[in-house]
Amino acid sequence: MHDDRNSPHPPPWKLLIVSGEDGFRINTREELANLRFIDRAIDLVEASSAEEARRLLSEQEEIAAAVIDRELETTNAGLELAQHIRQELGDRCVRLVLRSRQPPSPRERHHLLFDDIDHLLGDKDLQGENLRTTVEALLCNRRGLHEVNEEKRGLLRVLEMGAVLHRLDDHQALADTLLANTIELCNGVRQAEAAHLEGGVLVITTAAGRTEIIARQGDMALVREKIQQDLEQLILRLVHRETVSLRETLTLRTLNCDDTSLATLLLHGDRPLSNLQDLLLSALADHGAIALRRMRQIARLKAGYREAVQALAIAAEFRDVKTRDHIARIQYYVEEIAKRMGLPAEKAEEYGMAAITHDLGKLAIPDAILLKPEILTSEEYEVVKQHPRIGAEILAHSPRFALAAAVAHSGSRAFPGANGPRR
After folding, report:
1. How many CB atoms lie within 10 A of CB 413?
2. Which residues make Cβ contacts (< 8 Å) with residue 124, sequence separation at least 6?
3. Parallel, antiparallel, or unpaired for β 119-121 and 197-206?
4. In sequence order, what DSSP letters do the residues of 399-416 get, joined into one string?
């Protein structure tokens, strides 16, 4: 489809006239010469046969309506052409009128309903004011159907894009994807009145008033030029619920992430957003806000997990002063090895955090044995050897510590030929 939104004039409505009578085509052309509907002219596409009409339909885009003679090459050629449009081309939006001098038969009435043909009209209904009224009604119906289909298509895209946002687990990737998807979604609306977005920014503002641009697309200098003021000051005024005056080519949408921060989408284009673009933007922004809140919640849970693991590891360290530096070294080496093995940094950190709990089971070992300076007896050593199992059992009470439990339990394993530690 051609994008005519940057054109100074909206594209004309395309009306297909299929008639073997030159006089009817000439008369229709003259009657509709100066007709405009919603500030758009009428562009006639003419065919003298059903065969020619089929060719034009394969070449032309966005035919809004068609007036077709019922009788063309054959008695039913016009009806068959209408069926071709509906069933083979799958176009349920183009509005159809069959021109006929005879009333429809019962079979034709069935096809009028089944193939969604708007009218079957005689010559007197397709002349003068009646013709103009009929064409306006067809275009009005076409416009309504197009808007419904565009809204449906847009909302389906919102669902698809929202699903992608909810699967992301990286904050920067979420910000970049949300901004890019917002611009793509709005620019994908096929309406003459739709705006074309040239770029924008996503800004995070904290409760303390600090602002940070976390994603950008397009020319930032152009953004600042259109705002005509400092971006950070603009966002702060919004946070404090002050009235903000923006150029009509700018669109601003706030996303409540949580109690501590506010995200703001600021988009610039060639004109104000259409009603449908505004609706779709709001729907996607809601998905973005939910995804941001979810990511913040996950970050807090992960922080709580790290604090809990560190607290458990510290508790074990305090039992045995000699192992404190050992714990820190273990975490560092495990993370480095995991990275060298090709694991992502976040996964490597997860293994490092799990590794520091490998001696957690020592909490259950009596001080008389754990802190004994002399060599352990065989019986005492058997007690010490239970600490990996005990640590795994402690950690197994929470699914969140599953990896840590596995690491702790693996502490009982040794390389072939190695002996367990003895004091």
Report:
1. 8
2. 130
3. unpaired
4. GGGHHHHHHHHGGG---T
Q: How far is CA 168 from CA 154, 257, 299, 346, in A?
A: 21, 16, 13, 14
pLDDT per residue as tens digits for the range 249-288: 777 777 877 666 778 888 888 888 888 999 999 999 999 9
Cα–Cα distance between 53 and 96 in angstroms, integer? 13
Sign, Cα dihedral of 142, 147, 152, 158? positive
Cα 358 vs. chain centroid, distance in angstroms?
42
User: Which tokens go with 406?
Assistant: 């596995």
Per the rule left: phi > 0, alpha: psi between -120 and 50, beta: everything else, 155 is: alpha
Global model pTM greater than 0.90: no
* Residues 406, 392: Cα–Cα separation, whole Å: 7
The β-bridge relationship of strands 261-269 and 197-206 is: antiparallel
User: How many CA atoms, within 13 angstroms, populate the side-chain half-sphere of residue 173?
Assistant: 8
Residue 392 CB coordination number (10 Å)? 23
How far from 171 is each of 226, 253, 259, CA to CA, in Å?
28, 19, 17
CA dihedral 173, 179, 183, 186 (to 10 degrees): 110
Write out the two tokens for 24: 């009817």
The tens digit of pLDDT for each residue in 132-143 reads 999 999 999 998
Number of C-beta neighbours around residue 259 at 10 A: 8
Structure-block tokens of residue 237: 């005024």
* Residue 215 tokens, joined: 């994603």
